Amino acid sequence: MEKTECAVPEVMLNSGHKMPGLGFGTAAHPMPPVHQLTTVLVEAIAAGYRHFDTAAMYGSEEAVGTAVAAAVECGLVKDRKEIFITSKLFITDTHRDLVVPALEKTLRKLGQDYVDLYLIHWPVRIKQTADDYKLSEEDMLFFDMKEVWEAMEECSKLGLAKSIGVSNFSCEKLSKLLQNATIPPAVNQVEMNVAWQQRRMLEVCEEKRIHVCAWSPLGANGALWGSQAVMQSPILKEIAAARNKTKTQVALRWVYEQGAVPLVKSFNSERMRQNLQIFNWELTEEEACKIGKIPQVRGFTGQRFIFPKGQYKSVEALWDGEV
């Protein structure tokens, strides 16, 4: 496959490791067959993507590992070190005794000795037998942040993860975590886009030297959750037309200019390449100001984790009022 590489800037994490400033997401519903997804991911590497975001929950770890191996074999990259792989701890395994074995299982699926970044997917714990898409009150268990983070630190000390971090943590949960952490989280991966701008989170993370990764930078509109608030925004449409860019490019550029790393997901060849074209131009102050006025709404509330007798009895409790 011919290489059409587009250089993606890197950011320095508090762990001392560098992370590409744009990531390729691999969550899909339904998930394509492994061979099909592998082909897409090899194409993404050829296009210039060097940062791949997977998770135990997605079922895409095997395809990511196979694609990286194929890219090395055919010379798209020199070696594994050129690719940054993020994976995440599933909510069935958020217990101190299950974290290291869960990462070891992830590494077997990836066919790798280490991941570049390992995240706690949610500050939630459910029974091993539970169906994440059909949770009941009986499925919910207590998530002990302190003990789980100690096990995450063990993953770092064992060399199984170059950097460790969290996902979907509120500012308050981050502060609580930092009170006991001996290794601070390098990343908090959160929902972030022009329709959910996470201003306070960005300020807190900058102060704590934690990098923000933005999932759903285009405000996913899948069958399970999400909205059209980003892609149907008249403000984005106006800016895109004036700048001869796509609405997607404007949305991603805005995320990048906030200092966050957008995680894009398109299995379409043309859009895959368009999504890389966000680094050689800037939004004007006036355009940024207009984007700042877009109405705000969280796309994924986490309602599925809310139960009267559960750890989180309301959406406000899950997000510590950040709704």
Identify the notable features of this structure and list them briefly.
single chain; 323 residues; alpha/beta; eight-stranded parallel beta barrel; two-stranded antiparallel sheet; 11 helices
Commentary on this structure:
The chain is 34% helix and 15% strand. It has helices at residues 34-47, 61-73, 99-110, 145-157, 171-180, 199-208, 234-243, 247-257, 269-274, 285-291, 315-318; strands spanning 10-12, 18-20, 23-25, 51-53, 84-89, 115-120, 125-126, 140-141, 161-167, 187-191, 211-215, 261-264. Strands 3-4-5-6-9-10-11-12 form an 8-stranded parallel barrel, surrounded by 4 helices. Strands 1-2 form a two-stranded antiparallel ribbon. The radius of gyration is 19 Å and the shape is globular.
Read across the widest sheet, the strand sequence of neighbours is: 3-4-5-6-9-10-11-12
Number of helices: 11
- How many beta-strand segments? 12
Shape: globular
Strand content: 15-25%
Low-confidence stretches: none
Based on helices, strands and strand pairing, what is the structural class?
Answer: alpha/beta
Largest sheet: 8 strands, parallel, barrel
Distance between the amino and carboxyl termini: 45 Å
Which range best describes the helical content: under 10%, 10-25%, 25-40%, 40-55%, 55-70% or over 70%? 25-40%
Could you state the order of secondary-structure elements as H and E? EEEHEHEHEEEHEHEHEHHEHHH
Question: Please, what is the average pLDDT?
Answer: 95
Rg from alpha-carbon coordinates:
19 Å
